[in-house]
Amino acid sequence: MRRVLTTAAALILGLGLTACSDNPPPAPYLAEAASSTAQTTTSTSTSSEAVTTTVTTVVAKPSKGECAPTREELLANDPSPAGAIFSSYCDGQYQVAAGYATDGSSLQHWNGEKWEYIKSTGKYPVSMKACFYESDLISQGVPADVRAKVMPQLFTCPTSTPEQPAPAPAPAPSPASNLTNVSCGGGRYVLIVESVLAYDGQDPKPLVDAGLARHPGALATSPGACPSLRGRYDGADVYPIYKDYGSDRAGVCAAQARGEGNARELKSSVDNYASPC
Do you know which PROSITE patterns this protein is assigned to (predicted)? Predict the structure, then answer.
């Protein structure tokens, strides 16, 4: 009997072991690994970069500036253009500009964008008004051919410092051989190429002689020989060095337009020393 029970117990135990070995529990970490592997995906992204093209337009600066109208053009549009600006010389690079019926002019240079003033360093000794030395133009790069044309149209400084005025004004010099008498009846035109200033106490003859030497073929007359000619400026007598054009108004105006000097009509009326052109 005891043998039978022992055998039965052994049989039951063996069956239980066999059942357990047929269905083992899964290992947790293996299940997680499998789940992770199953959820792995591959993604591919494609990007396209936009290309932007910028077009820059370069506008060239004008090589020459717009000239102010000539005095003749100004008067054609307005017979009384008080203070309006006109040019007595302009080549697009350099311009001599002045206000109508005003006493003064300026030299300007085109910088590619606007007109700039050429600066002067001199001053008249009495009024302290600005005046030009030729060295002012040279130092600022004004070419020699332009200087020759514009200097007669600018207020130029005396070449030397005048002496202090004498206690009593020196008597007016008598007409000398280097001065020419002129008729003021009108209809006769001259081109003033230089104005020589002689201050009180200075002998005007060597100054006028030097001016005539600088302008071969020119003539000189006394200060204010006609009311249409300037007689005094800055406390000095003005001796005009001029070229006589007779009745040739067109010729004297053409010379002024070329920048050779300032045209004047010899007449007895006062017109603020205006040009007939």
Answer: PROKAR_LIPOPROTEIN
